[in-house]
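Lab channel / #folding
Pinned by the channel admin:
"Please post every new chain as: sequence first, then the C-alpha cells as a reply. Keep commentary short and put observations after the output so the thread stays searchable."

First post following the new format, from NK:
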Amino acid sequence: MLTHPLKTFIKAKNDDIGLHIQIPSFAEILNAANQNRGDLKLAHKTLDYQVQNLKLQRSLAVPDLSIGVEYDKAGGAGYDYSGISLSSDVPVFNRNQGELKAAKIQISQAEVNDSLQTNMVQNQVEGAYLKLINYKSQYDLTDMNYSSDLDQMGKSAIDNYKKQLISLLDFLDQMRSYTEAKAGLIDAKTNYFNAIQNINYQVGTTIIK
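Reply from TO:
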C-alpha cells in the first residue's frame, strides 16, 4: 500500500499464478466437451433409448401364437368333438404397426435433437475457445516486468511530489497515467482468467487448471 499525506493509494497484487499455462488444442477441448457435457449425454442416451425401443416394437410385431387342444365328449347319439385352437396377442394383420410407426417417428425426433445439441455444444465451445485464445494473446503481449514497472512509476510520482520536484498538476497527470495503465493490466488478467473459467464451464469439467 502506497501512502500520501492526503491520500491512500491501493497497490494491486501482482498474481500471475495459473495464467502462464499451455492451452489444449481445440480438438482436445471439443472432445472433452463431447464426453462431459450433461445435456449432450442426455441427447445421446435419448437417441439410444429410442433405437432400442424400435427393436422392441419390431420384436413385438411377430405374433406370439398359442396352440391348444380342444375335446368335447358329446352325449347320446352325437359324435365326440376334438380340435386345435390358435390364439395371438398381436393381431396377425396389424402386426403392431402403430407402435412401430410411433417408434420410428421418435427416433427421427431424437436424431434431430441429438444433431442440434451436438452443433450447439460445438458452437459454444468454439466461441469460448476463440475468446480464450484472444485474451491469452493480449495477456502474453504484456512484459513480465510491466506490473512492477508501473508500481515503480506510481511510487516515483509520489516521492517526487513529496520532495516538491514536480507540481501538483504533474503529479495528478502521472498518477492518472499510472491508474489507467494498472486498470488496463488488471482488465487483461481478469478477462483471461474469466475466459479460462468459461472454457471449463462449456466443457463440463476442469480441463484447464
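NK: Residues 1-6 have pLDDT under 50 and may be disordered.
TO: also worth noting, The CA atoms of residues 65 and 182 lie 83 Å apart.
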